[in-house]
Each structure stands twice: as structure tokens, then as C-alpha cells.
Amino acid sequence: MGFAVYYYLTMVPYSYFGSYKGWPIYIQSPPLWMLITYLFLVIISIIAVFISTNAYVKKIKLIQLLTLFAIVSLVLTIGILYMSSFKIIYTLVGGYSDSYIIQISAAKTLLKFQNPYSSSYLQYLILKESYPYYTYIFKYPYGYANNKIIGFVSSYDYLGFAMIYYIPKVIFNIPKSLYDAIIYASALLLVYRKMKEPYKSLFPLILASASFIFIGEPVLFSPIVGWIALVMVAIAYSDHPLLSGFLFGLAVSYRETAGVFFIFYLVALYYEKYNIKKIFYGFLISVLLVNLPFLILSPNEFVKGALLPLTFNLMPIGAGLSTLTQYGIYLPKIFYTVLFLSIIGIGLLVYAKYYSKLKYAGLVLPAIAFLFYYRPMPFYYMWFPLFALIAYSTSINGKKLTKNVKYKIDINWFIMTYELLITSLILFLTRYVSNISSIILISGFIGLASISVVAYLFEVSNLGQYYRPKYITYIILASLIIVGAFSSMFTPQLSIYISSKAYQSSQNLIIELASLNIIKFHNPYNVNYYYDILKNPSFGYLSETIPYNNTLINITKIDPQKDFSMYFNFKTRSWNNITVYNFLPGLALLYIPANLLSLTPYTYSSIIYAITFSLLGYFIYKHKEINLFLISILMGFFIAILYFSFNAMLTLILSFLILSLLLAKYSPMLSGIFFSLSILTYPDLLLSMPFYVIFIYYNYRLKFKKFFISFLITSLSIIFAFYLTSNNFIYYSFMQLIYYTKSDINLGLLLNLNTQILLIIGIIVTIVLSIYYYNNFNRLKEFGLLLPIFVTLLLPSLSLGLVAIFVIIAFISHFLVEQKSEIYPSTVESSGSTNHSLVEQKSEIYQTKYML
Which residues contact 818 (CB under 8 A, 6 or more apart)? Predict the structure, then answer.
């Protein structure tokens, strides 16, 4: 669900809707194929929860294959449709939502002992100038057009706690992100304390996997912590009925969405024999305590504000059935309202009648209803699967767990998955945070590579005994607060980020042109591509951030930057254009099928990546580890899916490297050929070759000879073919090791070191670390494949893409080599345990995996 929402929020483009009093309005407008893709991902997440209630059913294989199919389909969709559908893409970044502005302003009004429901916050909204985020009111029941806007919501339209929640923030002047981070981290800590095993051991993973959307979004952007944090704690502390009910009352008084979940949760608590009478009393006390004073003070304004979303004609934004409005299909709001309430009612009846079969899965039924709401914003329904997971691990299912059973998890998989996530976060920062310090990035990459040192010191097979989920949870929650503190210093003003997928960089075009020369039997190292690139209409790069103002952007006047990739000449102390093919031959060779079939680089690379991912998924599926694999991929989806989908070069290299490792056991000759093609691309990647050779040697000794001979013959044939026909081959192929290149991270340039010195150091470190890996393979295993990051850090130009490849390959290698247990009970200490109880424990374990 989180992945689906992230996909929608970050990839669906904005379009110009019209203007209001001279201020342009931009709204998210998904093409039909993007809406279908999003809904498909949402539906799969909901189906997965329902299937997980009976983990022994054969249908569980269906959801595994469906999830794999969804990932592969998304890779193809991004490469074939997304990268070619939009010439210009608008994205809104920064700014404040109208709900946050109104809630803060109402809190200030309340502190002045004035009635928030009788006040207008128009001046605060105008002052912030975040017009695209405002909730506009239209004249007619349907037919939403610019000329029908009569204003926007500028009064307080929430229940009482939505403003009371922010009173401490206003009094102590705490930044929004820090305040929400403290509240959220505290709530998650309280939830953790109530969890039973194996959920406590898995909780850090749950937190980490939720970081992109379930943690990052509410803390850094949307003002929704005030209800989701309370709901989480209320669920976990259902054994304290008055407290649980009281917290639910506060949550409902913040956002009515919590009330929809609450009525379904009451059904579950009733069947689980909780004291729902006390829970309801606690709920009633808090609701009346918070809202009754305002109702008595100004009943008309209170009711009008609370019911404003239902009584006013607001635009049906979001992703659900009402999105049909954007395609010209108008249905009255009453239709969506009745449909929504009907599904809620039917859902309650179904849940009550079939609770024994649905269990916690019934708690996601409200998510289905919200898809038919007339404003189906993802923030309304994305939380229900997470709430169901918390309920399953603390209250609904927690009573049935046997405390004497200890659980083990595959700690190597656990660490590799964290590695995947951290790399995703680093790459996310480089894409969306401008002017991020190179020192910060380098420090992050050193941390990634240092995992291999930790693996050596403690030995891979012994890492499990050092795992302490409690301390990792504390570290993650502390990091959440730190991120909230730092982000408060960099809150950008509302801006419009404009980009385009219709243009290609000079490097991409050079590779294509080099590939075309090979097809014509010309040596690509003998050609200067300067004029060919300038004449190419797709040459350029468009990425511009424009502060939002009352001037409409004229897209016809936005031209791409015609900038070449550049290298730094130490003699002249200047940056010069790269107009020659400055890669090893493998990259141009990998592009040949694309040129022969007249496919765009993104289409071709996405097809290759989808095929590779399918084969990899099938292999892992046959070895019964597909659950761990899918959990990791969805957890680190930014690097595993999105990052590579936007870079054709890296995708091809990664795909063929994965195929070479996948085929090493079954077809070593073909594996050697693919390995050669993938390694002979970036010169930096060539230095990582010894580590992969060592890895294959230890894991496939019987096949290694054929693999190595195939690799050696292929590599020498390629190298000599180009070397004998061009005097420029050595110089151009290794330019990236001889010079600093712009856009990459240049540690040596920061330290004013000569590239030749760095290259010599890099080669020496490669030799030393290779010997170290060879002699200590059993201590390092797949973690040794992270060692090339150390080498890359020392080279003149650090490519972020190569670091991503190293991490992905190390992660995938974990699944290709040996069969591992997933999550299982290790010992049963109680002498009275029976086979029946052990079966129940195994059932709980399977349900845990599928819930994740």
C-alpha cells in the first residue's frame, strides 16, 4: 500500500487547471493507465491482507505471483509509458497545505481566548500563497471548471482536537516536522512495547520499510500525525479499555477518518472478548470533553464547520472512482456519499458475520470504501493495512502467542534489507534535495561499505546472536526525531519543479551513436560526436525549479539545457566537454539490440530489466524464499524499481550482471559472456571484477572453470577488437579514471589530489581487498560484494549509480547461493507444549510473513 501511494504522489504529474484571482492552480491529473496501475497495486495490497489470514491455503502462491507480476508490470509501465508519455512534467514541491495553515491559525485563535469556529483564516491563507493546495468551492453540484470557483475553504472545518493538538507547538514555537516527529516516535515506541514475538524482532524492519511514506510523509509534509499516532497507541493498548477509548475519541476529534476505523475495530474487540463498553465510555468522554464546549459556545458554526466537506461542493480530488471526473464523467456528490456509506454498512455486516474467517483482515475493509468516496485522497485509506498489522501483533492476535517460544530470523537477509533501504534513502536525497553535501553522501557510502567490515569482525554465521531489535528500534526512532529537526531548517517555499523525459543527456546519446557505429562496423573510439549530438533534437536536459507566483508558466518558452557532460583538466584547471565515447566497449554492445529494433533506450532497458526480474523471481520462488525477497524489494523500492527505471545505462548493466550470477550454476559459458559484457562498461566497474570472480569461485567451484574461460575469451576478444583498430581506445575507455567528471562526486577534487595518485591507490586497495576477501570468504560471504564501494570512493569520480549496483548485487547474491530459513521457532522451553501448539505457532509465523 505504501509503495502504491508513493508511486501516485511522486509520479503522477500535475496539470494546469485554471486560475483563481490571477493565481494559477495545478492539480494532479493521472492518465488512465497510471490510475489503473495505482489501483492495481492498492487492490493487491488489500488482497494480500485477506489471504494472509489463512497462510496454509494454496492461494498464497497466487498473491506471491501477483506481487511479482505487479512489480514487473510497473517496471515495464515506467520504461515504456511513463518515460515517453510526458514531454513536460509539473510537480509541486514545498509549501503548506491549507489544513495545516487553518489548524495552526485556529490554535493561535484559541490561545487568544477567541472562538476558532467564528473566525476566518483567509488572511493567513493568502499570506502563505499556497493556492494550488487550497480546497476550492464550486457553484454547481457537478461540472468542475475554473469559471465555477466561488472561493476556497478558509474557516475551521474540523472537530476540536485538530487545533488543540498543535497548541504546544504554538506555545513553544516548535517546528512542525520536529513536533510531529516527537509525537510519532513516542507513539511508535509505545506500540513496540506492547508487541509480542516475533513482531518485536521484526518491528525495526516494519519501521524501516514504512519510512518512505508511512513515516516520512506525515512527519515532513502532511498534518496527519495527530490522528494516526493516537490510533496506533489506542490499538496497542486495547487491554486498557478506558485509555484506548479515550485515545480513539481524540483521534476522531482530529480527523473523522479515524471514526470509520473505530467502528470496525469495535467489531474485532467484541469477538476478542475485550471490554468494549469501557472502550466506548472512554471514547464518549474524550469526544464530549474536546467538542462539547465549542458546540455550546457556537452550535451553528460548529456544526457548519464539522459538516463542511459534506455540505459544500468541493472538487473530487484523489485516486478512486471519482477520478472519473477528470476524464469528463460527472456524477453527483450524493452518489459517491451514498455508495461510500453503503459499502461501510455492508462491510460491517460482513465483518460481524464472518469475523472468525476475516480476523484482522476485516480492518482493511474501510480502505475499500474510501476508494468510492468522492474525495478519495490516499491519506484517507493508506493507513488501514498498517493499523491491521499493529492490531494483529498487539491486541487481536497477541493473546494467542506463546511467550516461551523464541524466534530466529535470517539476520543476513535482515542486514542486507537495511542496506537496501539506506541506499534508497541516500539516492532519494540526491534526487529530491538540492545542494546536498558531498561529504554527507560519502559518509553514507562509507557506512554502507563498513557493513562488510562488521561481517568480518563478527563473522557472518554469528551475526544473529548480536542482533538486538530493541536498540535498533531506539536508533530508528531517534533518527526520526533528528530528521524532523533537520528538515525544519530546510522547509522550501512552494515551488514548481519542471522536468522532461523527452530529452537525453550527451552521454546517453554518445552511447547510442557509438552502438550505431559498431553496427556499421566502425570503431566508435575513432569518432568525435560533438556535431552529431548538437543536431539531435532529443539532446538536452530539463530540470528546473521555479518559485510559485501569480505568473502562469509558459511551457513553450521552456527550453532544455544543451549542456555536455564534462571532465576536469588539471593542467588548464578548467572543465571541458566530453564529445567522445568514454566508456568500455560493453555498454555500446549492450545497446545494439535497441538500435536494431528501433527501441528507445528506456523501453529496451525496461524490457531487459523486467525479463531479468521475472527470471530472478521465478528462481527464488522455486527455492521458497520469495516472501523475504518481495519484502525487501518493496521495502527498498526506490532503488530496486524507481531509480534504475530512470537510468537506461545502469539498468542494462545491472540486468546483465544479475543474469550472469543467475546463470553461473546452470550455464557457466553464457554466464561468463554476460559477466564480460556487464563488467566492460564503466572503467570503475572493471575494478570490482575480482570480487565477483571470487564470489563465483567459492559458490560454483565445479562450474567456475567454464565460467572463467568464457569470461576471459569474451573479454579479450572485445578488448583486442577495439584496441587493434583504434589508437584512442585506452585513453578514451579510461577517461573516467584519468579525469574528474562533472555531476559525479569528486572527493579528490575537494582535496585537490591528482587523479593519477588516486588511481594508483584505487588499484592497490582493489588488490589488497581482493586478497582479503579470498582469504576470508567464509567470514564475509555476500557481504564481501560491498567491498568495491571502498574502491569506488577512492577513484577520481564516484558514480552514485555504481554504488547502487554494488548494493543490489550483494543483496540478490544472498538469495542465489544457499537456501535459508526465514522466521521460525528455535526452542520450546515449556515441557507442557504439544504438537498442536507448535502447529499454531507455525501458523502465526506464516501469517506474520504474509502480513509484512
Answer: none
